[in-house]
């Protein structure tokens, strides 16, 4: 990507400002100040209408820029009310009266000299301050650049950085708790313990390779094998117990399926508390999947109302049936809806039987009886769905993984440890253990992480 293309991408996604920012930003991309990355700035409070907008700055030179704006630096980590001035003309121009906070590095979020400007949140104020920052040598931050700099300066590892992104996106209390534990380093500490154990075992293996003719105690190799087996079993257990945390982070999908006119759309509307789907006595009304997001048992759940399952000559309805079957395969739970006048469908996989219209027919044994029309049984159904959501996201792992990247790295580590246990040659066993160390290191960013950084930090908001 050229410097001009980078400039356009950052300008489109960062703080709103006038067109005259373009040339200054392009120049800043093409040079660095005194060998240091340029000062970056962004709104940490987003672009929504509010009373206060928080503008963050970070980088060597932040102090000079703050001094240019308000005359002198405030005391570290103390809010000070200051006038912000533009001084590029004959007469200084007052931009705003704002609270200014100064965070000298390395004791800051990024590890660099940093500052916050708590502005009045009018667009004209934000634009004027942004233009002035650019004129003073700063540039708008890229998505996640603040957290990336914090990672670079050792203020956090990759796991903690991902936890911050999850904390920003958390919709429920359970997601908040899980993300906060990750930010506090619960996962990092566990994975570091694994890495330390593996490093000690690898040192023992290197000793066996380097001193094959020495009279090393025979228990050295046995302790090595026992340690590998114990670590292998621990990590395998974590894979089995930690999947619920990944589901909690992304949310669950519950697909509502059944024959036409059994009340699927009515059930979706009742659970959502609004008219999300069209309800009609005419069979085949729902032609495409309709999704709505709710919270069940403190877990975000996407409900999917699907087309009625039946044979049809209608080309559009047939496509809807095909899509319904696709959603059934992808769903975390399938809610099979039928009526008492029908035979209960056969459950396949993780699903629930829900018999609607119990005001007309009794529900058979094994099914949850409801009437969307009279609301009978709806509280029971909500409780069952909530319990099911909690069960699907529960786990016993000490610090469960929350992303596919985590699972893949742990699976790769387990794979190489398993291969090491099957090796008779010390050199081959040692190589597999080194590959396991490298895979484990990618979790926290200890080794070989450059290819991961854009993906990890690109999902952040600008001001993080």
UniProtKB/TrEMBL annotation:
<feature type="binding site">
    <location>
        <position position="265"/>
    </location>
    <ligand>
        <name>Mg(2+)</name>
    </ligand>
</feature>
<dbReference type="GO" id="GO:0005737">
    <property type="term" value="C:cytoplasm"/>
</dbReference>
<dbReference type="InterPro" id="IPR025867">
    <property type="entry name" value="MnmE_helical"/>
</dbReference>
<dbReference type="Pfam" id="PF01926">
    <property type="entry name" value="MMR_HSR1"/>
</dbReference>
<keyword id="KW-0819">tRNA processing</keyword>
<keyword id="KW-0479">Metal-binding</keyword>
<feature type="binding site">
    <location>
        <position position="464"/>
    </location>
    <ligand>
        <name>(6S)-5-formyl-5,6,7,8-tetrahydrofolate</name>
    </ligand>
</feature>
<keyword id="KW-0630">Potassium</keyword>
<keyword id="KW-0547">Nucleotide-binding</keyword>
<dbReference type="GO" id="GO:0003924">
    <property type="term" value="F:GTPase activity"/>
</dbReference>
<keyword id="KW-0378">Hydrolase</keyword>
<comment type="function">
    <text>Exhibits a very high intrinsic GTPase hydrolysis rate. Involved in the addition of a carboxymethylaminomethyl (cmnm) group at the wobble position (U34) of certain tRNAs, forming tRNA-cmnm(5)s(2)U34.</text>
</comment>
<feature type="domain" description="TrmE-type G">
    <location>
        <begin position="251"/>
        <end position="390"/>
    </location>
</feature>
<dbReference type="InterPro" id="IPR027417">
    <property type="entry name" value="P-loop_NTPase"/>
</dbReference>
<dbReference type="InterPro" id="IPR027368">
    <property type="entry name" value="MnmE_dom2"/>
</dbReference>
<keyword id="KW-0963">Cytoplasm</keyword>
<feature type="binding site">
    <location>
        <position position="56"/>
    </location>
    <ligand>
        <name>(6S)-5-formyl-5,6,7,8-tetrahydrofolate</name>
    </ligand>
</feature>
<feature type="binding site">
    <location>
        <position position="155"/>
    </location>
    <ligand>
        <name>(6S)-5-formyl-5,6,7,8-tetrahydrofolate</name>
    </ligand>
</feature>
<dbReference type="InterPro" id="IPR031168">
    <property type="entry name" value="G_TrmE"/>
</dbReference>
<protein>
    <recommendedName>
        <fullName>tRNA modification GTPase MnmE</fullName>
        <ecNumber>3.6.-.-</ecNumber>
    </recommendedName>
</protein>
<feature type="binding site">
    <location>
        <begin position="305"/>
        <end position="308"/>
    </location>
    <ligand>
        <name>GTP</name>
    </ligand>
</feature>
<dbReference type="InterPro" id="IPR006073">
    <property type="entry name" value="GTP-bd"/>
</dbReference>
<feature type="binding site">
    <location>
        <position position="286"/>
    </location>
    <ligand>
        <name>Mg(2+)</name>
    </ligand>
</feature>
<comment type="subunit">
    <text>Homodimer. Heterotetramer of two MnmE and two MnmG subunits.</text>
</comment>
<dbReference type="InterPro" id="IPR004520">
    <property type="entry name" value="GTPase_MnmE"/>
</dbReference>
<comment type="similarity">
    <text>Belongs to the TRAFAC class TrmE-Era-EngA-EngB-Septin-like GTPase superfamily. TrmE GTPase family.</text>
</comment>
<dbReference type="GO" id="GO:0005525">
    <property type="term" value="F:GTP binding"/>
</dbReference>
<dbReference type="GO" id="GO:0030488">
    <property type="term" value="P:tRNA methylation"/>
</dbReference>
<feature type="binding site">
    <location>
        <position position="116"/>
    </location>
    <ligand>
        <name>(6S)-5-formyl-5,6,7,8-tetrahydrofolate</name>
    </ligand>
</feature>
<dbReference type="Pfam" id="PF12631">
    <property type="entry name" value="MnmE_helical"/>
</dbReference>
<dbReference type="InterPro" id="IPR005225">
    <property type="entry name" value="Small_GTP-bd"/>
</dbReference>
<feature type="binding site">
    <location>
        <begin position="280"/>
        <end position="286"/>
    </location>
    <ligand>
        <name>GTP</name>
    </ligand>
</feature>
<keyword id="KW-0342">GTP-binding</keyword>
<dbReference type="GO" id="GO:0046872">
    <property type="term" value="F:metal ion binding"/>
</dbReference>
<feature type="binding site">
    <location>
        <begin position="261"/>
        <end position="266"/>
    </location>
    <ligand>
        <name>GTP</name>
    </ligand>
</feature>
<dbReference type="InterPro" id="IPR027266">
    <property type="entry name" value="TrmE/GcvT-like"/>
</dbReference>
<keyword id="KW-0460">Magnesium</keyword>
<dbReference type="Pfam" id="PF10396">
    <property type="entry name" value="TrmE_N"/>
</dbReference>
<dbReference type="GO" id="GO:0002098">
    <property type="term" value="P:tRNA wobble uridine modification"/>
</dbReference>
<dbReference type="InterPro" id="IPR018948">
    <property type="entry name" value="GTP-bd_TrmE_N"/>
</dbReference>
